[in-house]
Amino acid sequence: DKLYVLDITNQDLDEFYAHIKRYPHVEIAKTDDFGEAYSYKILYDKQKEDGYDLGMVMELGYYFEEGCFNALKLFALTKKIENMAIITPAPLYSCQTHERKAETYRPIKGCKLVGVLLNLDIYESLGGFDLEYYQTTFDYDYCIRARLDKKEIILLQNEVLRNINFRLIEKKMFFQTLTTYDKDPMELYYETRNKLFLWDKYKHIDPEYVELDKKLTKAEMHEMRFRDKEFKDKKIMITYAKQDYKKGIKGEYIPRDYF
Predict the structure, then answer these.
(1) Which residue in 2, 152, 156, 237 has the fewest CB atoms around it within 10 Å?
(2) pLDDT of residue 40
């Protein structure tokens, strides 16, 4: 096994590098930030080039619950994974509770690719990621293409990946305290724009997924509208995203005159 570190921060991390270089099988690369999709491509391409069958990408702020990583590896070693494109743990924020399931694993329609085992032969055969998404959504596009190619995405329901990258927002209404998760305006921009492109791309190919994703997105927006006091300001980026979608603009967000 080998650890690859991709540094896109453009910050002085010499102390960190000095620490991890003491360990064997660590390789470090620095690059500018060309978007999440490109960063994932660099890491998976390198893992494939070095001859690995399965690859994984982790990000800052994520951690496995005890035994999760070993359970992922054991599942991959003991099951026939030729048609398994992805093996994923259950992703949860660190504040969320988890109930164990009797059914230990099941196929799902899609997932984010952080903390998953990805079959690199299937990754290569599918042609990697659509880099035009730039940030977010490239992973769900990849999952759809994998399923359309008769490959499976497997969720291990009792193994948990935790995410500490969140901020809870509280809003008092009458005698209730309503909570939701804060979303960065730029994250909302990319999610909104890219999902519109994704839905348009697969509306006739995978209509069941598109309709489900539309319902979930609508519910999320409804919750945000009523529980996030800053939603009016964030709605501006959603408007920009919709306008860029109508103009066919993909890639990195570039501020422009929208009105």
Answers:
(1) 2
(2) 97
State how beta strands 152-163 and 176-181 pair: unpaired
Which of 41, 58, 50 shows the shortest CA–CA distance to 117? 58
Q: What is the pLDDT, as a whole number, of residue 259? A: 66
- The two three-digit tokens of residue 56, written as one number: 């994984």
How many whole angstroms separate alpha carbon 226 and alpha carbon 224? 6
* pTM (predicted TM-score): 0.91
Q: Beta strands of 34-184 (E only): which ranges?
A: 54-55, 62-64, 84-93, 105-107, 117-119, 152-163, 168-173, 176-181
Q: Would you say 199 and 214 are in contact if contact means Cβ atoms under 8 Å apart? A: yes
Determine contact, residues 236/190, Cβ cutoff 8 Å: no
3-class secondary-structure state, position 30: strand
pLDDT in tens, 41-91: 999 999 999 999 999 999 999 999 999 999 999 999 999 888 999 999 999
